Amino acid sequence: MKKFFQEGIIQFLLIAAISWLLIFFLPSRIFFTKFLPSSFCWLFWLVLLAVVGRSWPGNTLAGKRPVQAGITMTAIWLALSFLTTLFVTHVWPAVPLFPVAVWYGIILFTTTLWYAFIWQGYPFAKLPEWANVLIGAAIVFGITGILWSVLVNLNGTLWESSAINPHGLFSGDFTFGLMVWIITWMLISAFGFQNYPFYKLPQPFGQLIITVLIIILGYFSWTFLSKQIGSTFSIAVGGSIIGWSLFFSTLLAYYPFTKYAQPKRGIYSIAVIAFCASVWIILLRWLLLPVYSKAHHAGIPFDLWQLIVIYTLHVIPVLSLAHNFFWSRLPLQPAGPPIGPEETVTWKDKSSLNPVTPGKPKQV
């Protein structure tokens, strides 16, 4: 286990460094007004292909020809992301790429994560991978369309009188913060506690309860914290928790808490995630100052707290998840199947290519 954990640390540090170089050396207007809004479509297809579709169609090649699988999946992913960005900006809802597509994109990403990790593709999860991808895309886009129409209004913007204004309940900025905090509680449930204890209920009752809880907690966290500490700092806190929920579970494999079943594993994991997120915010205030200065001179309307969210959620996850799911962590040892909430894991063979070795199921 130590070897896998150590490789995960190296993987994270390298990707974090590459991400910093990308965000610093790419022209600010290209990065913030082109890549950033389109990255929601990148993340949408990344989660849909890797999680809902179980890395289809590259999963048939991953074991014997991982390089070919990586090239295939990356090409499909980038092509679909590009076409989806064109669809969102030219067909429906036909919104400007910046900044309106950012408000639409956060709803798209939230719905994608909910469908993959909370709803878990029910009741279609047992269908073939290609069917899961197509059905998942249709469901996510359908729900996103409904939420876009109900939640967002463009009043007070250049598009207030435009036909693209859905005249919903909240401003785009309020909706963005709300979605960030809904995702925060969503990943605390899905990654921290692995949906414990609600996964024990018959489907879809457990999913429905989690959905209601994360919406309520997300709304009150966002409205309360935005008043107490400021809206952009609140988003930075939520975004850092989201990022470290992902990093700790996916890149670092819950080390060293896989010897515990849920909910003990989740309690320890959340403590680590909270600590890492706190240190992360302090560290990035220093590391991202050159990026902020460069972006500020280019007239980009983001403060340092918003840059923390962008770096944490739109650059590192794109590279790390693509490396994990599409490229099988090459040249590192590939990750095994995800550990279940009631499983414990032993890591006796440090040289094993499959670091996850399920132990005896442990009832909680």
Per-chain topology:
Layout: H1 2-25, H2 28-52, H3 66-90, H4 100-118, H5 129-151, E1 152-153, E2 170-171, H6 172-192, H7 205-229, H8 231-251, H9 264-287, H10 289-297, H11 304-314, H12 316-326, E3 343-346, E4 357-361
Parallel strand pairs: 1-2
Antiparallel strand pairs: 3-4
Run of helices and strands: HHHHHEEHHHHHHHEE
- Strands ordered across the widest β-sheet: 1-2
User: Termini, distance in Å?
Assistant: 23 Å
Q: Kindly state the mean pLDDT as a whole number?
A: 91
What is the SS-derived class?
mainly alpha
Oligomer: single chain
Beta content comes to under 5%
Q: What is the number of strand segments?
A: 4
- Sheet bearing the most strands, described? 2 strands, parallel
Roughly what percent helix? 55-70%
Instruction: Write down the Rg.
Output: 20 Å
General shape:
globular
- Uncertain runs are 349-364
Put simply, the count of helices is 12
What does this structure look like?
- The chain is mainly alpha-helical.
- The chain contains 12 helices and 4 strands, in the order αααααββαααααααββ.
- The strands form 2 sheets. Strands 1-2 form a two-stranded parallel ribbon.
Looking at this protein, list some descriptive labels.
4% strand, disordered C terminus, mainly alpha, two-stranded parallel sheet, 12 helices, globular, two-stranded antiparallel ribbon, 364 residues
